[in-house]
Amino acid sequence: MSTSTSDEGPCFDGSEWRLKEFEECWFDESDISGDTTFDEIAKFLLDSFPSQVELDFPSLRTENRCLLKNKGYVGHIQLPSGHAIRLLPKVELDNVFEMMEYAYDLGDFDLEGVYDSDTVEGFYDRIANILAQNIVQRRRRGLYRAYVQREEKSQTLRGRIDFGKTLQKPWDPKAHIKYSEMTADNEENQILLYTLSKISSSTNLCREETLQLARRGIRSMRGGITYNEFQPRACIGRQYNRLNRDYKRMHALCRLILDNSGASYEVGDAMMVPFNVEMDMLYQKYVANWLRENLPERFEINRGGDKEETVTLAEFAGRNLQYRIDIVLYDRDTGEPVCVIDAKYKDDERPGTGDISQMVGYAKAVGVDETFLMYPSGFDDSLDIQLDDVHVKNAIYSLTGDLDENGQLFLESLADELGIPELAG
User: Fold this and answer.
1) Angle, alpha carbons 375-420-303 (nearest 5°)
2) Percentage of the chain with pLDDT > 90?
3) Cβ-proximal residues to 37 (8 Å cutoff; 6+ apart), any chain
4) Ranges assigned E (strand) in 118-157
5) CB neighbours of 302 closer than 8 A, spacing ≥ 6?
6) With 0-12 CB in 10 A as exposed, 13-18 as middle and 19+ as buried, what is 201?
7) Number of H helices, E strands in the chain
8) Which terms does the record give in the GO molecular function aspect (predicted)?
9) How many C-beta neighbours within 10 Å does residue 396 have?
10) Contact assessment for residue 44 and residue 274, using Cβ atoms and an 8 Å cutoff
11) Between residues 313 and 224, which one has the greater pLDDT?
């Protein structure tokens, strides 16, 4: 078997590929066990996972060898042939889990045992189990009820009549009415049901205990809660009160699962749900949330809230031309922006000309002089470029070792570069 190897051994054993972030795995087609051809595997990957895995076919150029490469994801892909691809991080797996805890605001949960997982599938199973347990327990106590706006045609008058729509058909004895109804069939519960349906299809990721728990939750909600599909962003920015404050935590878990789960597909008689974490997006979310929780009181980031800072440049052809900036640091005392930080987590961890131009544009749009390209590791030489009045430097928030200590080192370095000692706390 002539597969490429790493410090951890061969990247392919005939049935499973182990692809570390951004690393290549070269192998002979004859290494693939069974009757499956590389063409069959490649077609499935190109159709379903083009963002996660890069591939190359045997040719004279590749010396008749096949290539699979991890494009920066951590997760697991079960192939219809029975083979599997394990996407491995280049940092400690425990640190990936800790990053997800910060990125998805899971601090309110008791995650004991979750970090004991030695695979992404184990992590997913434990998170899914915690969510399913919480939903089943809440169902026993009673699901949250809220007023929902309804519209229908009826001869029984309730709420108010929409005369505009009713008069369109004056011969119809039924009026078009609008009314409010107190019901458990609201978006808060529909998000829970949709996420449970994702978990119940995750036979490749979850233990039977977790699958049964999810299915029990689905059965308990069936008939009373409408099944609707949701994007992960539906889980954030919602309003909570004393009657549904526990939903904030459950929706945080829903967001983690939906944000990293792909469309389900069949392998034999079983349904599979891929769970693959895009590391560059996780790095950005993690650093932003870590700073939000650990910055000294005098400072804050991204006044727009949870997401990136959005700066509108102009309106053109009916559309807003905008910059979406990872992190803008503000001084609360002055109300002014201090610097711009852009998280870079990629294969080639060296700044390019495009990165520099991007930072200059960000600085001009926000109105600052100092900008930082932030990487999880350093390079031999420090970046220090001055263009007009804009300073572009590199900064490091390492993902190796203790993440909180690395965060403090990052703040100390930033405070030194900006000449603001108070930033270090």
Assistant:
1) 65
2) 68
3) 29
4) 146-154
5) 288, 292, 308, 309, 327, 328
6) buried
7) 10, 22
8) endonuclease activity
9) 17
10) no
11) 224
**Cα 100 from Cα 255, distance rounded (Å):** 11
Residue whose token pair is 């961890």:
349
**Does residue 165 or residue 193 have the better pLDDT?**
193
pLDDT tens readout for residues 23-72 = 999 999 999 988 889 999 999 999 999 999 999 999 998 899 999 999 99
Return the bridge partners of 330, or none. Answer: 300, 337
Q: Please state whether beta strands 275-278 and 299-301 pair in parallel, antiparallel, or not at all (unpaired).
A: unpaired
First to last CA, the chain: 55
Q: Is 34 left (phi over 0), alpha (psi -120 to 50) or beta?
A: left
What is each CA distance from 298 to 303, 374, 417, in whole angstroms? 14, 22, 18
Q: How many CB atoms lie within 10 A of CB 73?
A: 26
- Name, in order, each residue with C-beta under 8 angstroms of 366's C-beta and a sequence gap of 6 or more: 309, 311, 325, 328, 337, 340
User: Is the distance from CB of 410 to CB of 339 less than 8 angstroms?
Assistant: no
Q: Per-residue confidence at 1, pLDDT binned at 50, 70, 90?
A: very low
In whole numbers, what is the pLDDT of the chain averaged over residues? 89
Alpha carbon 334 to its chain's center: 33
Q: Which of 383, 325, 375, 382 shows the shortest CA–CA distance to 349? A: 375
Inter-helix orientation angle 187-200/246-260, to 10°: 40
pLDDT in tens, 238-250: 999 999 999 999 9
Least confident of 18-22, 320-324, 361-365: 320-324
Distance separating alpha carbons of residues 230 and 417, to the nearest angstrom: 43
Q: What is the pTM of this model?
A: 0.86
Burial of 19 (0-12, 13-18, 19+ CB in 10 A): buried
